[in-house]
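Researcher: Sequence of DUF6532 domain-containing protein follows. Predict its structure.
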Amino acid sequence: MIGHKLNVLLQAGVIKRNKPFKHPCIIKVITKTFFEGGRGGHSSLADKHSKQFSSIFEEGPKMDELELPIPIVALAATAVHCALLEWQTGEHNKLTFHGDTYQPIYERHVKVLEDVRNERGKYHRLMADLYEMTSRSKKLAGEIIVDIGAMEE
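Model: Prediction complete. C-alpha cells:
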C-alpha cells in the first residue's frame, strides 16, 4: 500500500518537490491524529485547539483561510518517516517512535517549512491546502481531491 501511495508523488523516478507534505500518508496521519474525535464522542485535538489554525496573513482575503501549524505537519511527516523505516527491509520491524531518536528528522521538517514560510504566498497556499485536505478528508470518505496545477499563491 505504501508503495502504491508513493507512486502518486513519483514521476519517472523523480520526487515531485513542488508538492511537499501532500502525500496521502501524511494527510491521513494528520486527519486521524488531529481531526478525528476520540472515543466516546470526545472532541478532536483540532477542535480543542482551534485557535492554533490561523492564517499567516492578518488582513485581506486570505486571512480567513485557516492553515495547519508547522509542528503538526512536521510531526506527521516524522511519523511517516518512522513508518517507512519499519518496512525498509521488506519485512515489518516495529520501531519505537521516540523523541530522542526522531528529533533531528522533526527539526529538518520544521526547517523546510520555515524556509517555505519566507515565501508567504506559497507558504499560505501549502498550509491552507493541507488544512483543507485534512479537516475535510473524512467528509470525502478518504478521497483526496486536489488540482495542484490550478493552485494559486
